[in-house]
């Protein structure tokens, strides 16, 4: 009985077709993954740039506010709590720096009678004995928060000596030495700390 002739061309064509059917989808899949990865990297880079821009704008706004307060305080001989309130209100902070919890001013006081001077300053600016230097204790220097706006929700901070917080003290010392604005490391604000 005769055997059918073996057709190598037909076999080669079948193998080539099978190989193409297996390899072409793999090539397509690898190509699509590379494009998807490039798109993802591009999206992450764009989002990262947007976040950086927003943060830089926020920090620029904070710096402008701090410089404004510094100029306001240095340009006046005697600022009252009401004048500080009106000044901060005029800045429209809720629209230019949403999320800003408050703007305050602390005065550096040192010397033998620093505690009495600090308490007298609070009494002078706020009338009576409504606020006291916190925490209590005798120190070489004090930097109590004299003004804080908005007062609602932040009044617990008035009288708080920022020099009793290491991070704030370090920044205050550096600012005093350089005359520059210095940001503190992350700290828990006295108005957010239930123990203070």
Q: Could you give the topology of this structure?
A:
Elements: H1 8-74, H2 81-90, H3 93-96, E1 103-106, E2 109-110, H4 114-126, E3 141-142, E4 145-149, H5 166-178
Antiparallel strand pairs: 1-4, 2-3
Number of strands: 4
**Spans with pLDDT under 50 lasting ≥5 residues?**
none
Percent of residues in beta strands: 5-15%
Give, in order, the helices and strands: HHHEEHEEH
Order of the strands making up the biggest sheet: 1-4
How widely separated are the two ends?
A: 105 Å
Oligomer: single chain
Mean pLDDT: 86
User: Percent helix among the residues?
Assistant: 40-55%
Number of distinct helices: 5
**Secondary-structure content class:** mainly alpha
General form: rod-shaped
The biggest beta sheet is recorded as: 2 strands, antiparallel
Radius of gyration, taken over Cα atoms and rounded to an integer in Å: 33 Å
Keywords, separated by commas or semicolons:
single chain, 196 residues, mainly alpha, two-stranded antiparallel ribbon, two-stranded antiparallel sheet, 5 helices, 4 strands, 55% helix, rod-shaped
């Amino acid at each position: 009985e005769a055997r059918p002739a073996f057709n190598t061309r037909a076999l080669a064509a079948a193998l080539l077709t099978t190989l193409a059917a297996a390899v072409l989808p793999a090539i397509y899949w690898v190509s699509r993954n590379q494009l998807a990865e490039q798109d993802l990297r591009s999206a992450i880079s764009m989002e990262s740039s947007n976040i950086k821009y927003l943060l830089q704008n926020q920090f620029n706004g904070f710096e402008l506010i701090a410089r404004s307060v510094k100029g306001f305080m240095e340009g006046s001989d005697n600022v009252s709590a009401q004048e500080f309130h009106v000044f901060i209100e005029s800045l429209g902070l809720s629209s230019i720096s949403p999320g800003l919890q408050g703007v305050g001013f602390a005065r550096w006081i040192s010397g033998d009678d620093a505690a009495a001077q600090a308490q007298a300053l609070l009494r002078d600016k706020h009338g009576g004995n409504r606020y006291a230097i916190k925490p209590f204790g005798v120190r070489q220097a004090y930097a109590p928060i004299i003004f804080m706006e908005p007062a609602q929700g932040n009044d617990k901070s008035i009288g708080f000596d920022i020099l009793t917080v290491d991070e704030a003290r370090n920044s205050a010392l550096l600012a005093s030495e350089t005359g520059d604005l210095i940001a503190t490391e992350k700290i828990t604000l006295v108005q957010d700390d239930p123990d203070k």
